[in-house]
Structures are given as structure tokens and as C-alpha cells.
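Input C-alpha cells:
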């Protein structure tokens, strides 16, 4: 059985991060659209989100208006226990 990539990231200190991104329409600068981005990232630097926002500014025509960030650690150190053995029930 393999461990999921997301679970491994959580054990490495990543937390679920959600960004609410507001941007202006390229052809209609007075209109603002919303985009929701979600991934596992590291608080407080948010390197994954920063990489995405850098990509946005370089490749996407809609200029950023504002970004709101929320994050939540899904696994806390007190919730993880190491086991001494493995038990199988038939």
C-alpha cells in the first residue's frame, strides 16, 4: 500500500491553502472576476502560491486586483502517533 502524495506533504509541514484571487478582465478593466486556487503549501512563505501568482502575472492577461489567502493545518503533531508494530485481523 502506498501513501498518498497529499498525506506525505502534510507530514512535511504543508497545509491546505486556499486563495481567492480577484483579477480584472483583459478587455474590460472595470470588470473584476474571481478565481479560487487551492493546493498544499507552506505557511507563512507560501512558495507554491507565489510560484502560481508569478506564472499568472507572466502568462495570463488579466491583471491581478487582490488576493486573499486562508490555510489550515489538517494534521497536527498531537494527532500523529507512531506504532510499535503492525497487527492483522483475519
Amino acid at each position: 500500500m502506498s501513501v498518498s502524495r497529499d498525506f506525505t506533504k502534510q507530514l512535511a509541514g504543508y497545509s491546505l491553502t486556499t486563495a481567492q484571487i480577484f483579477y480584472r478582465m483583459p478587455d474590460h478593466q472595470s470588470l473584476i472576476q474571481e478565481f479560487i486556487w487551492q493546493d498544499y503549501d507552506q505557511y507563512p512563505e507560501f512558495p507554491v502560491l507565489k510560484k502560481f501568482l508569478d506564472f499568472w502575472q507572466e502568462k495570463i492577461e488579466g491583471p491581478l486586483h487582490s488576493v486573499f489567502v486562508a490555510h489550515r493545518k489538517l494534521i497536527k503533531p498531537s494527532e500523529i502517533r507512531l506504532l510499535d508494530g503492525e497487527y492483522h485481523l483475519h
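The chain has one domain: 5-76. The longest helix spans residues 47-59.
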